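ARCHIVE CARD
Drawer: 12
Card no.: 0347
Subject: one protein chain, sequence and derived structure
Cross-reference: see card 0346
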Amino acid sequence: MQINDLKLNSPRKKRKIIGRGGKKGTYCGRGMNGQKSRSGASVDPLFEGGRSTLIDHMKKKKGFKSRTPKKNIIKLADLEIKFQDGDEINQKTLVKSGLISKMKIIKGVKILGSGELTKKLSIASGILVTISAKKAIEKAGGKIIFSQSD
């Protein structure tokens, strides 16, 4: 018995050395020529050899979606129909009246000056009002409680 024949009680498995000839031959288990047969080769997992990938083949979503969605637009004529004289208009009362849905309240509300208004309405804060709508509300005797106008 020689020293190289001894088996040591080592828990480690010997690392397989490739690329040095021997039983594996010249290709050493890597296959023949190609990108993965080279040393240091790393291929993107989504790369498919130059053809269009699966992601490229998937249907693309059409259209455009703005980062800042449009506000819910309400006309003065709608306020004339839905509300009584002296009512306060805020986002909750607009949802109750059915002019905007509860889901769309996040976008915000803007009142446009199209149509006529004869009732005294008070517009609460958090509702945008155009200049023409502001003039029409004040002309009818209503008021705007701290609102941003543009």
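Annotation on reverse: The radius of gyration is 37 Å. The helical segments are 54-57, 76-82, 91-97, 131-139.
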